[in-house]
Amino acid sequence: MTGPDAAVPARPRNPDDTGPITSRAQPPLRDLSDDAPMLARLNAIGFRLVMLLDGVLIYLAAVASVVVRYGLRWPTYSVTHYLVSFGVLTAIFVASLYLGGLYEREPRLGAPPALPRAVRQTLAAAGLFVLSNLVLTGAARELGWIRSTRVVLPLPIPNLVALIVVAAAGVAFNRWWVARERTRREGPPKILLAGNEADLEIARRHIGLDQRRSRIVVEVSEPAQILPAVRRTDVTDVVVVTGRWLDELYPHAVERLDQAGITMLLRVTGRETMFGLERLREVGGLPFVLLRPQTMPRSRRHFKRLFDLTVLAVSAPALLVLIGIIALHQLVAVGRPLLYWQERVGAGGRRFQMLKFRTMKVDAEAATGAKLAEQDDPRVIPACRWVRATRMDELPQVWNVLRGEMSLVGPRPERPELTARFETAIPGYARRHALPPGLTGLAQIHGRYHTDPEYKLGYDLQYLVNWSPVVDLEILARTVWVVLARRL
Fold first, then answer.
1. Segment 144-184, tens digit of pLDDT
2. Residue 329 sits in the same domain as residue 350
3. Structural domains of the chain, count
4. Pick from 29, 33, 314, 356: CA 20 to 30 A from residue 474's CA?
5. How many CB atoms lie within 10 A of CB 66?
6. Which residues have C-beta within 8 Å of that of residue 383, sequence separation ≥ 6?
7. What 3-state class would DSSP assign to 288?
8. Rounded to an integer, what distance in angstroms lies between the CA atom of residue 54 and that of residue 59?
C-alpha cells in the first residue's frame, strides 16, 4: 500500500495542449508491403516480416555451416535429424531476438547501430540452445530414448560458433536494409526543432548539415508552440534542444506526440549527464535521449510475463503449502469470509478485482470511505496483525498473477478513488500503469507505509525503465528480507 495522500498541486494544462493531434506524417511502417491488411494486423500485434528474414538467414546459415565442414555426407545423425535440430535452433534464436527488443519499431532519428545488440542476443540465443540441448539430452537418456553417446539437437560447437558470427552480421544487415527501404519510401525524417534562440543556433549548425539523413521542416521558440506546429506540418520527429522545457512538455505533450506516431528527442547537456543516463542517441553530433510515455516495449512485457510464469511454476509447491497454512490460520482467527475482493487499477488503467486474505473487520470503511493503510491501523483484526506485517495477506494475489492481471514485481495497485486523486495531483502518475501491478515492487523494498506517493512514483518509474529478470529476482529476494525484518 502507498503512503498518505499527496498534497501536490495539480499542474494546469497549456491551452494549446487540448484536442487530438492530427498528424500528416507517414502511416505506421509496414515492413515490406503497404497494401496488405493482414500484414498490418500482424504488425499491430508485434509480428514483423523481418522475423522471417532472420529465421531464413539463421536456418540457411546452420545448414551451410555443416555443408562447408562435412560436404553432403553429414556424420552420425540422419539429415532429417539435423534439419529438425536446425529448426529448433532457429526458433530459439528468433525468440531471443524478439525478447531482446530487436523486433520493436525503432525511431529512425539517431537510431543506435544494430550490430552490438545483435551480437548480444545471438550470444544469449546460443547459450540458451546449448542449455536446452543439455536438458533435453539428459531427459532423453534417462528415459532411454537415445544412447549415451548421442544428443537430441545435433550441431557441433565449431559450427555454433560460426553461426553466432554469421547470424549477428546477418541480423544487423537485415535491419540496415529495412531502414534503407523505409527511408526510400518515406524520405528522411522531417524535424520540428524546438528551443530558445541560442540553443536553436547551435542545433542548426549540427542537425541541418546533412539533408539526406534528416531535414528541419519548422522551428519553434516556445514550448506551447510545439503541438500547434505539429498539427500544421508533416513532421515525423520533434527535437527539443532546451532541456529545461521538459517540465512543461511532460507528460501531456509527450503522450500526444506518441499517440500521433511522432518521435520526441530531448537534448542532453552537462547537467543531465549527472543523472547517470546510459541510452543516448546521436543526431548531428549532439547527444539526445528518446522520450516515451510507455517505458517498456511489447517484447519486454512478454518476456516479463514468461519470467513470472516460470518463477511460479518453480515455486508452486512451496507457495501452495504456505498459502494453505495462512488460510487455515485466517479461517480460525477471522472466520468467513476468508477472502477479500477489492477493485484496483491495473495495466493501462483497466480495473480488476484483487484478491487478499481478509485482515480487517467486515465493512471496515463503511464510515470513512476509501482510506490508505497506516501503521498500527485500528481497522486490522488483532490476530491478523502479523499476517499484514509479513504481507502474507497478499499471497492470494498469485491468482491475479496467473490471470495476467498482476505481476510478481511491479508498482503496487491502487484503488480507483485514490488513483484518480494521485493522477490529478502528480504529473506522470499514470505512467506506472504501463505494466501490470505487482505483488511487490521497488517502492515496497525501499519505501514505507508513510512514504509520499510522488516519491514512490519515482521508484516505480525507475523500475519500469530498468527492468530485467535479474532486477525482479533481486527485488523478490529483498522483499523476503523486508518481511523477515518487519521493515515496513
1. 898 888 999 999 999 999 999 999 999 999 999 988 888 88
2. yes
3. 3
4. 356
5. 22
6. 333, 334
7. strand
8. 9
Report which of 97, 112, 108 is spatially closest to residue 54, judged by C-alpha positions: 97
Look up the pTM and report it. 0.77
- Asked if residue 208 and residue 124 are part of one domain, the reply reads no
- Tell whether 322 and 471 lie within a shared domain: yes
The span from the CA of 188 to the CA of 216, in Å, is 10
Domain identity same for 282 and 318 = no
Tell me, what's the pLDDT at 451? 64
Rounded Cα–Cα distance for residues 295 and 463 (Å): 10
Per the structure block, which three cell numbers stand in for 142? 534417462
Tell me the residue type at 13. Answer: R
What is the Rg, in whole angstroms, of the alpha carbon atoms belonging to the chain? Answer: 27
Half-sphere exposure of 487 (CA within 13 A, CB side): 12
**C-alpha to C-alpha distance for 217 and 207, rounded to whole angstroms:** 12
Per the CB < 8 A criterion, the answer to whether 50 and 170 are in contact is no
- Please enumerate in sequence order all residues whose Cβ is within 8 A of that of 268, keeping only pairs 6 or more positions apart, or say none: 243, 277, 280, 287, 288, 289
Q: How many whole angstroms separate alpha carbon 62 and alpha carbon 71?
A: 13
Q: Please check whether residues 132 and 277 belong to one and the same domain.
A: no
Name the amino acid, one letter, at 272: E
